[in-house]
Amino acid sequence: MGKYGNSTYITLKTVTGITPVDDKINYQLMAQGFDATALSAVQAEDTQGLCGEKGNVVTAQSLVDALADKVINTVMAKIGTAALTGGMTDLSSGLNKLNSNLNGFHVYANISDLGLSNGVTVNDILSKMPEPSMGFFYVFDNNINKLPITTQANLIIFKSGSASDIVERSIWTGETYFGKYGGANKVESWVLIK
Asked: What percent of the chain has pLDDT over 70?
C-alpha cells in the first residue's frame, strides 16, 4: 500500500520507480484523496436538502455553511429575544453589553495580550496588568522565566490594589507553588504548598 497525491493505492505487485496510477496492473486506487484544506473540492450528497433538493450533489463547504446557518437560526428562533436581559434586542448587542459591563476588570490568557513575549518574568507580567485583573497563563519550555516549574504548568495571577496572588501548578505532578512578595507587587520567592 502506498500514498501518492493525497490518494491511497494498493500495490498489486512489487514495483520500483513507477508513479502510482489506477492501472490495475501495478496499482489499484483504494481511496481517492483531495486537498484537505479545501472543503469546496469535496463532493457530497445533500441527504437533508439543506442546499436545495434532497439527494443533490453539492460541495462539503456548502453543506457546512448551510448547517451552521440552520443551527444559529434554529437556536435564535427557540431563544428569541425574550431570554435577553436589560432591554437587549439581539444576541450580538447582548454579548457586547455583557462584556463592557465588567467595571474595568480585565482577563488575560496570553502574555502577548499584555504586549509581552517569551522570556519574561512574573514581575514583568505584573507590571503590565492593570488593576483589577486576572491572568491564566500556560507555562511551557521556560516561556516565563524564574518560575519553580519551567514547563507544562498553569500560572494564575490575581491583581487587585497593592496585593496580588500568584499560583503556579504543574499539569503533571500537581505540585503547587505560591508566589511570596517582596513588596510593590513583586515576587521574591516561591513557597511549595503541601
From this structure: 77
Length of the chain: 194
φ/ψ of 141, rounded to 5, equals 45, 45
- Which strand (E) or helix (H) includes residue 111? none
Burial class (CB in 10 A: 0-12, 13-18, 19+), 166: buried
Beta bridge partners of 154: 138, 169
pLDDT tens digits, residue range 165-190? 888 888 888 889 888 766 666 787 88
Q: What's the Cα-to-Cα distance from 95 to each of 40, 71, 91, 103, 134, rounded to whole Å?
A: 32, 19, 6, 15, 20
SS3 150: coil
User: What is the value of pTM for the model shown?
Assistant: 0.48
3-state secondary structure of 34: coil
Q: How far apart are CA 102 and CA 113, in angstroms?
A: 18
Place of cell 516549574: 149
Tell how strand 7-11 and strand 27-31 pair up: antiparallel
Confidence of residue 23 (pLDDT cuts 50, 70, 90): very high
> Contact, 138 vs 169, CB < 8 A?
no
